[in-house]
Amino acid sequence: MKTNLLGFPRIGGNRELKKASEKYWKDQITANELIQVGDDLRKENWLLQQSAGIDLIPSNDFSFYDQVLDASLTFGCVPSRFHGVKSSKTDLELYFAMARGIQKDGFDITAMEMTKWFDTNYHYIVPEFTKDQSFELLSVKAVDEFKQALALGITTKPVLISPVTYLYLGKEKEEGFHRIELLDKLLPVFFELLEQLALAGAEYIQVDEPCLALDLGDRERKAIVRLYAQLEERFPKLKIILTNYFDCYGENLETALQLPVHALHLDLIRCPLQLDDILDSPGFTRKQILSLGVVDGRNIWKNNYEASLKLIKKAAQNLGTDKLWVGSSCSLLHSPYDLELENKEDNLPSEVKQWMAFAKQKLAELVDLKVLASGSYTEEIGKKLDLNQRVFLSRKSSTTMHHLPTQERVNKLALEDSSRNAAFSDRRVAQQMELQLPLFPTTTIGSFPQTNEVRKWRAQYKKGAISQGTYDELLKKETEETIRFQEEIGLDVLVHGEFERNDMVEYFGEKLHGFAFSSNGWVQSYGSRCVKPPIIYGDVFRDNPMTVKWTSYAQSLTPIPVKGMLTGPVTILQWSFVRNDQPRSLTCKQIALAIRDEVVDLESAGIKVIQIDEPAIREGLPLRKEYWKAYLDWAVESFRISASGVADKTQIHTHMCYSEFNDIIDSIAALDADVITIETSRSEMELLDAFVNFKYPNEIGPGVYDIHSARVPNEEEMEILINKAASLLPKENIWVNPDCGLKTRDWPETKSALINLVKVAKKLRKEALVATA
């Protein structure tokens, strides 16, 4: 029996990669210095895994930005707009230009599209394909990193994204072909990479095929069969580990079982029942090793050894321990680095901390389970098992987790609690009378740049270096300057800037009961963007207003409407580490009631526009459509609970990030938000098609400014995007806004971009008025 780790966090215990990358982008360190940081992080990770006793240690799980972007560079799949960069810049400069766009040295090129990695909060860079797409082995990163580990005396298991999953996750940039048809062009490059890995001494290759967790058609299944047949023929000595995660194989199981691979990985956290399906299947020849993903790669709760051992022993009785590996359910990329770094009792009480395991601790869990399952019972391992069981008993009997009034309130929810008083058509009339907004109203999504100075104030306040009064005065000054800037450029609905907030979920979690917090529990969201998810360990409820103070202050500075800014219940749930002892739907409704109370308080304080962000609603979709309805029913209900306590004249907005809306547009409409803003600039308004085809009745703000890129869009390109939207939707339904919040941007680029945005909106407003005169 071996321990099989699918991947490890790449950002470092102290976010070394984030800090170095951002310094490089600002020309504060050289490319060589950034590369050295990467070398050091990989070395540290490999040696840590080796010392922990991991048998199959991954390589090529490290990335400077995103593993799918790495694959695009490896396969030479570089969009044509970057060819000038490719021919004149280094590979690293090309790489970051593809990820972030480039606006210097005569280049002004938009970044590649970005979307969510399956149902996680990690974002990947979407490959772009044309009908005549060509591929080449442009990067041998996987080989270089294997050799780097080998020089340390560690023979790793290279991790490669399957060519089929890579193509499946991409997008055709022209009509007339399907991207899977490019497989035969891509395979020679993939095989060339494998040849170099084999020559370097690789024995095991982890081929990630997570598209097997999705509803595939015959075309994709046939492509997968063809790929692995050729792999066996070309590389009979390589031991291929077919790796699926985030759900069962489902309807793809029989396809997976027939593939000539050395090992088959199962995510038994997301789908424990699939073990029985496989053991009972006549298609399972028992020639393959089963890698049992029993250690959760996506949550922070300790492994229940007793439960895991039941699964392992069931498999062992059928196959023998020599045909089993103990693995993480997926890459630990989605887990924080090290629980040992947490020592603040106020944030993370010891009672809750004892129930948790971060990535470093999960390595020990893998090894413990291997020893326990192999029957090598010692006094030491017996103590570990006993301690593990006692931890779970303490969690089950804890008095801090349960709040009876909250449980009763959820139980009493009725249909009227999730319904607005009037239909949107009537609310719209009331809201227009109240707000008097022009055609093409302009707004932003919420946050404004959080400078180093603002972050410094927060750090000083948390350390007690400055008083509450001093901190508030600093925030008031920053808020007023932001209000004045928005007034000056002519935005129609303002925001207060959110300078008091650290993170859009963490901020609310800090003010709600049932949450705990880490100090260093960072996980990568995209590129250098790291988030520190709150930990929902108990019943969630609110006993005091959370946002009224700063929204009311901002509104007191101006007669122009200021939006109240809230994070929605589904997003708070999705972007937290969630308790796993009750249904997620129940936890979500608890959060929804807390947000509802805040919405009502904002309205009572005179706030006329309230935004309840739900960027993660698509992210929460089960990967298989058969389970969608159950999820969407409670997700939509939760949003409506949060939004339905106000009068018709109060305008409710929501915001959603990179999402494909076509197949859930009826549920998006069922949210019944008065205004929805979405990210569309990178896809050039392509995502609007779903709203057009559905005849979406409410108002919509398609983003015209990509805030995830450092470049400043000019007036002409914004005008093209708004005109494209106006050709698809009624003009009176369109808002003009950026793609997302501006927290991560710098002030100079933010000001330039928003000035351009308002100018374009005013120009088009004037043209529309002239046309109707």
The beta-strand count equals: 24
Biggest pleated sheet: 8 strands, parallel
Unreliable residue stretches: none
* Rg calc: 26 Å
Count up the helices: 28
Shape: globular
Say what the CATH topology of the largest domain is.
TIM Barrel
The CATH top-level class label of the largest domain: Alpha Beta
User: What is the first-to-last residue Cα distance?
Assistant: 79 Å
Number of domains: 2
Helix content: 40-55%
CATH architecture of the largest domain: Alpha-Beta Barrel
Chain-averaged pLDDT: 94
The assigned structural class equals alpha/beta
Strand order of the largest sheet: 1-14-13-12-11-10-8-2
In what range is the share of β-strand residues? 5-15%
TL;DR?
The chain has 773 residues and is an alpha/beta fold.
Describe the fold and architecture.
With about 775 residues, this protein is an alpha/beta fold. The chain has 2 domains: about 1-395, TIM Barrel, CATH 3.20.20.210; about 410-450 and about 485-765, TIM Barrel (Alpha-Beta Barrel). Helix content is about 45%, strand content about 15%. It has 28 helices and 24 strands. The strands form 7 sheets. Strands 1-14-13-12-11-10-8-2 form an 8-stranded parallel beta sheet. β22 (about 650-655), α25 (about 665-670) and β23 form a beta-alpha-beta unit. The radius of gyration is 26 Å and the shape is globular. The mean pLDDT is about 95.
